[in-house]
Design goal:
Distance between the termini: 32 Å
Protein name: Squalene--hopene cyclase
Pfam families: SQHop_cyclase_C, SQHop_cyclase_N
CATH topology of the largest domain: Glycosyltransferase
Strand content: under 5%
Number of strands: 4
Largest sheet: 2 strands, antiparallel
Order of helices and strands: HEHHHHHHHHHHEHHHHHHHHHHEEH
CATH class of the largest domain: Mainly Alpha
Structural class: mainly alpha
Radius of gyration: 24 Å
Keywords: Repeat
GO biological process, one term: triterpenoid biosynthetic process
Helix content: 40-55%
Organism: Blastopirellula marina
Number of domains: 3
């Protein structure tokens, strides 16, 4: 490698990442706009106006703005993708058509809607939607509800949801084998009630039982709704709740009113809504860990108190989670999970070991880490893996254990091992590794739960999954095991002709760059392969990949985002900090791997006034 070039590019990328902080000293990031979120918000607000015309003056400008965004961002094939850099899919396309119909624009936009409906029909129509989601009703039923509210499908096509089960104590939810994932209880209640209202069951006894549970289940919605009004800080979930309540005459219900307030607060200047408000905690801990990878003393950053303050100190009303975890943002709609908690534990470990930290600071950090470790250990599933939110929910895809989550939890527990002697850490780690060994595919790769690649089979992203698992093997000194070596060989074989990794043969030009590789996946691959057994990778692989990244830093293209993130129910997003963070982490790790290279002479800027 050209070490001078590497050091220069690392400094550029690191300083750019530091410059992305907000005035409070942490990172907020920026999520992509979302046609899917925008469509659901338009439907929700229009149905509120129908039910409560007094809201017209306040809400009509938002409806018009959302319609304008949708009409301007229809893809050339007639459909819509989740983001402005995503391929069309049947789910988002159906939601967009429903929104334009509910907004009363079918005559005005006849050609565009007909084009979209041709796309939907070509992709299987309603049966195609059901095939997309299989047994998981978390998103298929809301979409069909939206379609039914637009008069585009009979209510018989909408599966009834057992909203009355939400009246049970939370600890019983996982025993009920609900047809939706753990985080979708608000949709279960609101959409279930809408389906019941618009097509009640013929059995009078069942009708009476469900009617008796209606008010009590609405109280569950109130209890779970955060101060912001946005369930999970997510426009789609909140919009499905609002449109369902408005359709049954409940537009003035406190839940609907607060949901509308959230939509008003989160709309973008271009008339769109993002998939979530922000990933501030996730973005901040990723950034801290990336900067630490380059050998900089993150202890001089001024965001530690903010990260510590984001740890939950009480039982969470949404999932019933015990105290000790972290969520993806500091906003009230966040929920503690098994990806953000390990990320925070790894980040505060860098502060703990920083020469800039005093004993009292280290004591506070260690207390937070112990509480986080207890939370993680209690969350571990029976199969040895870690789920996202709730232990024991295994019937739906996004509730099962995930290889990426498990590897992240292993790394977090390991880094605090010396401070956790009273906890069964070793047992948790071994169970986690046994889970990972079972999840390794025959070719040596692992699949992640929360990231994808729209150019790969079934939207899978084995590069991301394999990297995250290999980092756990790296941290625990297991890179010479058969599983790690097999994974590293697979990963090395994925290098593209241009020297990068990832992407696909038909990446849209609006994803940035002429190359088929992606910044995010190339940077991830570099970080993992730096620790690989050198018998398993060709000597030219790393220089070529690092060179590809350095070229991107030099020409500025390294900031181009790819839609590799999966949100709830496999919804695509991209985040503007991802390529920056991952570039800093990989170039920093490459520098540290060359022991003869001194660290970059610049020091981390400590002031939040930058």
């Amino acid at each position: 490698m050209d070490l001078d070039r590497l050091q220069r590019c690392y400094a550029i990328a690191r300083d750019d990442l530091l410059a992305q902080r907000n005035p409070q000293g942490h990172w907020t990031g920026e999520l992509s706009t979302s046609a899917l979120s925008t469509a659901t918000a338009v439907s929700a607000l229009q149905l509120v106006v129908r039910n409560d015309p007094a809201q017209t003056e306040r809400l009509q400008p938002l409806i018009d703005g959302g319609v304008r965004y949708l009409t301007e961002n229809q893809n050339p094939d007639g459909g819509w993708g989740d983001t402005d850099r995503s391929y069309s899919n049947i789910a988002t396309s159906m939601l967009a058509v429903a929104a334009l119909t509910i907004a009363g624009r079918r005559e005005e936009l006849a050609d565009q809607i007909a084009f979209a409906e041709n796309y939907i029909e070509a992709h299987g129509g309603i049966p195609g939607l059901r095939r997309r989601y299989g047994k998981d009703k978390t998103f298929a039923v809301p979409i069909l509800t939206n379609y039914a509210l637009a008069g585009l499908v009979d209510w018989r096509e909408v599966s009834p949801l057992p909203f009355e089960l939400a009246c049970l104590p939370q600890k019983f939810y996982k025993l009920m084998k609900l047809p939706v994932v753990s985080y979708a209880i608000p949709a279960l209640v609101a959409i279930g009630q809408a389906r019941y209202f618009h097509r009640p069951p013929w059995n009078p006894l069942l009708r009476g039982l469900r009617a008796a549970a209606a008010n009590k289940s609405l109280k569950v919605l109130q209890r779970m709704q955060p101060a912001s009004g946005g369930y999970l800080e997510a426009a789609p979930l909140t919009s499905f709740v609002v449109m369902s309540l408005a359709s049954i005459g409940q537009a003035k219900n406190r839940v609907a009113v607060n949901g509308v307030r959230f939509l008003l607060d989160s709309v973008r200047p271009d008339g769109s809504w993002p998939i979530d408000t922000n990933l501030a905690n996730w973005a901040t801990t990723l950034s801290i860990n990336a900067i630490a990878a380059g050998g900089d003393d993150v202890g001089t950053l001024d965001c530690l108190p903010w990260v510590l303050a984001n740890q939950y100190q009480e039982t969470h009303p949404f999932t019933g989670a015990d105290p000790g975890g972290w969520g993806w943002t500091d906003l009230s709609g966040s929920v503690p999970d098994a990806d953000d908690t390990p990320g925070a534990m790894l980040a505060i470990a860098h502060f703990f070991h920083s020469p800039s930290s005093d004993n009292e600071t280290r004591r506070q950090i260690a207390t937070a880490a112990r509480n986080g470790a207890r939370w993680l250990i209690d969350l571990q599933n029976g199969d040895g893996g870690w789920p996202t939110f709730c232990e024991g929910w295994g019937t739906q895809p996004f509730d099962r254990s995930g290889s990426d989550l498990t590897a992240h939890a292993i790394r977090a527990l390991h880094v605090w091992r010396d401070e956790l002697k009273e906890l069964p850490v070793d047992r948790a780690l071994e169970r986690g590794f046994r889970y990972l060994e079972k999840q390794q595919r025959d070719d040596g790769s692992w699949l992640p739960l929360w990231f994808g690649n729209q150019d790969q089979y079934d939207d899978e992203n084995p590069i991301y999954g394999t990297v995250k698992v290999l980092l756990a093997y790296r941290d625990l000194g297991r890179m010479t095991t058969d599983a790690a070596r097999k994974g590293a060989r697979w990963l090395a074989a994925q290098q593209n002709d241009d020297g990068g990794f990832g992407g696909g043969s038909s990446v849209p030009t609006l994803c940035g760059g002429a190359s088929e590789s992606s910044v995010e996946e190339t940077a991830l691959a570099v970080e993992a392969l730096l620790a690989a057994d050198k018998r398993d990778i060709s000597p030219e692989i790393l220089p070529q990949a690092v060179g590809w990244l350095c070229q991107g830093v030099e020409d500025g293209s390294y900031v181009n985002c790819s839609p590799i993130g999966f949100y709830f129910s496999k919804l695509w997003y991209y985040e503007k900090l991802y390529p920056r963070v991952m570039t800093v982490a990989s170039l920093g790790a490459a520098l540290q791997a060359n022991a003869s290279v001194p660290p970059a002479p610049e020091t981390v800027t400590t002031s939040s006034d930058h």
